[in-house]
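The instructor's notes for this session suggest beginning with a concrete chain rather than abstract definitions. Hand out the sequence below and ask the class to guess, before any prediction is shown, which regions might be ordered.
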Amino acid sequence: MSERRRETLTYLVGYALALVLTLGAFAAVRWPIAAAGTTLAIILALALVQMIVQFRCFLHISLKRSSRHDLLLVLFASLIVTLMVSGTLVILFNLRDRMM
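After discussion, reveal the predicted structure:
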């Protein structure tokens, strides 16, 4: 199998998996089959699997030794963004409490 064909197949499989996971999350919210906490856990699990699919199929990041630097870069960037967003939310909620 040629490299181009293998890459196209990876994109198609990734797209199909991403679509199924997204529709699963929408279905879990639209037609709840469990309590709210369980539905939230289902959505978070689907989101985690979605991230793994995105990393593997579209960003071509795997656990091979050559790709670990890319994975560490993505994880560090995620950490920085999480810290910035959570810090901003803390400040905004603090200011809202002071205004009320």
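Then share the key points. Helices lie at 3-30, 36-58, 68-99. The two ends are 65 Å apart (CA to CA).
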